[in-house]
Design goal:
Blueprint: H1 3-30, H2 37-41, H3 48-51, H4 60-80, H5 84-101, E1 103-104, E2 107-108, E3 110-114, H6 118-131, H7 141-145, H8 148-152
Antiparallel strand pairs: 1-2, 2-3
Helix pairs in contact: 1-4, 1-6, 4-5, 5-6
Length: 161
Amino acid sequence: MDTAATRRALIVFFRLAMAWTFIYAASHQVFDPNWSVAGFLKNTKTFHDVYAPFTGPTWAPIMTFLVGYGHLLIGLSLLFGLFVRVSAGFGILLLLLYWTAHMNFPYIENRNNFLLDYHIVYAGVLVQLIFERAGHIWGLDAWAERLAFFGRHPKLRALVA
């Protein structure tokens, strides 16, 4: 058994699985004119005072746009393996926010999820994708890292490295 090939295949599988997760979420948020972040956040319990201001008429349209298109960009980045380090970082942030938004401490969403749920598992997968440099495995990060732009701006190389 070729463990290196298996490892690479698993990394690509998890990168594409997470890409699908974010793109599918975006499909409901970007293309459904009735979807709003206010509906999602109005039912928060443990951190209600933190999230309630984002359900108002001033913030809700802004947050709805940012969440929907954020999901789409994260998903596309993971799909193509370009800027995976950046998109996975934003994905982790979103997942942790969703985890707290679903929390009715110590339960998440329902009594079957005590402290942990799929948001934390997905965030862990994204952390692993960062550490594995998943965009370099059948993705565009390896190509982008060799571009002259990143040679001229080595501090930005971390975006694709």
